[in-house]
Amino acid sequence: MESVKSQSYEVHINELAKAALNQHIAKKEYSKIFLLVDENTKEHCLPIFNKIIDFSIDSILEIKSGEENKHIHTCLQLWEDLSNLDGDRKSLLLNLGGGVLTDMGGFVASTFKRGIDFINIPTTLLSMVDASIGGKTGVDLGALKNQVGVINQPQMVLIFPEFLETLEKRQVVSGYAEMLKHGLIQDKAYWDNLVHEANFTDASCIQHSIAIKNKVVLEDPTEQGLRKILNFGHTLGHAIESYCLDSHDKKTLLHGEAIAAGMILEGYLSHELRGLSKLSLDEIKSTFLTHFDKVEFTEDDIDAILQLLKYDKKNSHGNVNFVLLQAIGEAVTDIKIPEELFQKAFAYYKE
């Protein structure tokens, strides 16, 4: 299966990934090789990874899994660990984990000694098709997602679909939401294939999603224009995710679960403001509700979620900017939403 070429690195899959990693390590004279894991990837993925590599790891760094640990205090501990273990500017950090770990590991590597090399080895479907591609790194600020970070590219990204066998079904389905998003914003045929026919965990589907995201990132690496379309469903989705993470009476949502709700809501806004057909809107809603449980929202919940929109990273000059759909496969950016439509969108979601 062909590798996907990005700006300064490649995304390799299966056997090509194994060969690329071992060749890279053999060629580069790293002073230290560090491996970052969490308790889950240490138990389930590290034994698989050890069979892939032809080199030795100098030190394994471990963090706690979960979005609630994606904050600067965890980074501080990792910077101290790297320093205490004699890490220098010629060190390498391998990030073996899901999106929380690759986001944070990339940020730690990008800032330690003003930047050391890192390689992302995503272990969840979500991180394979989304979080580990495009060079976005960072951490949350309280419950507000990805408020602190930098855009910096890894040396390479390595995809081993066998890691998906270590996951519970809920984690795998969470990644499916991002794959569906790729179809909604850029490729109707891919959307149709994912909805009606494809085994979405197949390597060819994973590669297709990576290629869509990579194409967008190549055209707009610093998110000045086109790359914003990757945020479809994320403006409200991130607010929902943050609210549920910070609320004691709400079940914490996985990223894909939150943006699935966000895509239905923003699909409704697309219908009202950009002419997305009612047929397409209903197809989007039924597809997501087939795979994701409906989230219950009270009026107080909705008010609190809408208050969180002011922290969205895409905001400019005090305006909340949305990505909407004109049709399945056609996205538009920088759309401002009349406030009364938010309540109508939530009413449509609840129907």
From TrEMBL:
<dbReference type="Pfam" id="PF01761">
    <property type="entry name" value="DHQ_synthase"/>
</dbReference>
<dbReference type="InterPro" id="IPR030963">
    <property type="entry name" value="DHQ_synth_fam"/>
</dbReference>
<keyword id="KW-0479">Metal-binding</keyword>
<keyword id="KW-0456">Lyase</keyword>
<dbReference type="InterPro" id="IPR016037">
    <property type="entry name" value="DHQ_synth_AroB"/>
</dbReference>
<keyword id="KW-0862">Zinc</keyword>
<dbReference type="InterPro" id="IPR056179">
    <property type="entry name" value="DHQS_C"/>
</dbReference>
<keyword id="KW-0520">NAD</keyword>
<feature type="domain" description="3-dehydroquinate synthase C-terminal">
    <location>
        <begin position="175"/>
        <end position="315"/>
    </location>
</feature>
<dbReference type="Pfam" id="PF24621">
    <property type="entry name" value="DHQS_C"/>
</dbReference>
<keyword id="KW-0170">Cobalt</keyword>
<feature type="domain" description="3-dehydroquinate synthase N-terminal">
    <location>
        <begin position="61"/>
        <end position="172"/>
    </location>
</feature>
<dbReference type="InterPro" id="IPR030960">
    <property type="entry name" value="DHQS/DOIS_N"/>
</dbReference>
<dbReference type="GO" id="GO:0003856">
    <property type="term" value="F:3-dehydroquinate synthase activity"/>
</dbReference>
<protein>
    <recommendedName>
        <fullName>3-dehydroquinate synthase</fullName>
        <ecNumber>4.2.3.4</ecNumber>
    </recommendedName>
</protein>
<dbReference type="InterPro" id="IPR050071">
    <property type="entry name" value="Dehydroquinate_synthase"/>
</dbReference>
<keyword id="KW-0547">Nucleotide-binding</keyword>
<comment type="function">
    <text>Catalyzes the conversion of 3-deoxy-D-arabino-heptulosonate 7-phosphate (DAHP) to dehydroquinate (DHQ).</text>
</comment>
